[in-house]
Amino acid sequence: MSYRVNRLAAGLALAGCTHLAHAAGFSLIEQNASGLGNAYAGAAAVAEDASTIYFNPAGMTLLPDRQLVVVGHLIKPKMEFSGTVTPAVGGGQGGDAGDLTFVPNAYFAYRLTPDVHLGLGLNSPFGLKTEYDTGWVGRFQALKSEVKTININPSIAWKVNDQLSLGGGLNVQRVEATLTNNISPAAPGSLMTVDGDDYGWGWNLGVLWQPATGTRIGLSYRSEVDYTLEGTLASNVSLPLPPSGEVTADLTLPASASLSVFHKLSPNVDVLADVTWTGWSSFDRLAVVYTSIAYPLPPTPENWDDNWRYSLGATWHMSDAWSLRGGVAYDETPVPDFYRTPRIPDGSRTWLSVGGQYRFSERSRIDFGYAHLFVEEVGLKSPPSGPIILTGEYDNAVDILSAQYTHSF
């Protein structure tokens, strides 16, 4: 039974670090609607609106005196399992574990002097919500997994000259996580719940270089964020193991770096490209510690890999009022097959995105975008040392619909 506790506690820390697999791994790359139509190609070089605070704060030097951006995303992942469990404990396949989620963002940029801009971003860089049907075959590994994060990102940018801008920001984050699973076939109806939360902080830097008219190159970096999740482990039945009590788990979210290019191919056509690295290899093990009782849990190996994301996009400015966008991207999964879990059945994915912009006036506009993520079919097999072995495959996909209002004043 201690095996199941360790996997659940691992799920808690994973959830604290997760961003539900819209960028591979767990990153929520959905930070604006203006970039979704391009599959976020060139995100660190576009600097089209105040959402550049997240992707590259140096881009604020290209914005008007004051600008407000408000964004909303509807995200629907599909995660359908088919497989078996040993020993046979009965149950269905779990249904679609993906849940429709609304994710908001907001940004404000302000020109303090001709060469210095200030900004503030409010967003959710990590998030997870999955829930399997009650009584499914993997109920002893996972039932519900839900994570909410809030990130506050004050930023500053300095225009060094007409070709070069620098930017930086501070990220203050809060994470809340709730995970549940059934405990043991020997105790029908037994349920274990883990709740935890913490604050963490990190920083981000950006450089924007314009080597020629109509061409921009952006380089951005986001630091690791360290958490010590504090919470409780509780069950609805009295069993010798696992004991209910307070627990903590140290967790490091990975650093990332992006290199982006924006080029105006003609007065009406822009082309964009991006390469992003995420250092998921920092997530190599998890140690969970009881703080209220002397009950040690062995560390859980994770052994994730660094991953890369590649994207290409184009924008066609049809008229003074309308622009259309398109983009493709490929995300590598950082999760090795041996370490995949029902809470995070992550696989590499291919993005196909479309979107557009309508300008009401020089001061106000709306952006909209849609993306479908084709996720590779991935296998799942619990470690053979566990008392309950879950074996099968996942049919995954993600749909994203976003809208954004931008106002300059």
Give an overview of the whole structure:
The chain has helices at 2-17, 43-46, 52-55, and strands spanning 66-86, 101-111, 116-123, 128-131, 144-159, 164-182, 191-212, 215-222, 225-235, 245-253, 256-266, 269-278, 285-286, 288-290, 300-301, 307-317, 322-331, 349-359, 364-375, 378-381, 389-408. It is mainly β and 409 residues long. It contains 3 helices and 21 strands. A 14-stranded antiparallel barrel has the order 1-2-3-5-6-7-8-11-12-16-17-18-19-21. Strands 13-15 form a two-stranded antiparallel sheet. Helix content is 6%, strand content 55%. The longest helix has 16 residues, at 2-17. The protein is elongated, with a radius of gyration of 22 Å. It has one domain: Outer membrane protein transport protein (OMPP1/FadL/TodX) (Porin). Residues 1-21 have low confidence and may be disordered. A hairpin with a 2-residue loop joins β7 (191-212) and β8 (215-222).
What is the fold's blueprint, element by element?
Blueprint: H1 2-17, H2 43-46, H3 52-55, E1 66-86, E2 101-111, E3 116-123, E4 128-131, E5 144-159, E6 164-182, E7 191-212, E8 215-222, E9 225-235, E10 245-253, E11 256-266, E12 269-278, E13 285-286, E14 288-290, E15 300-301, E16 307-317, E17 322-331, E18 349-359, E19 364-375, E20 378-381, E21 389-408
Descriptive terms for the model:
mainly beta, 409 residues, 6% helix, Porin, 14-stranded antiparallel beta barrel, elongated, disordered N terminus
Average pLDDT score: 87
- Please name the CATH architecture: Beta Barrel
Strand content: over 45%
Largest sheet: 14 strands, antiparallel, barrel
Let me know the CATH homologous superfamily: Outer membrane protein transport protein (OMPP1/FadL/TodX)
Radius of gyration (Å):
22 Å
- Percentage of residues assigned to helices: under 10%
H/E order of the elements? HHHEEEEEEEEEEEEEEEEEEEEE
Number of domains: 1
| Unreliable residue runs | 1-21
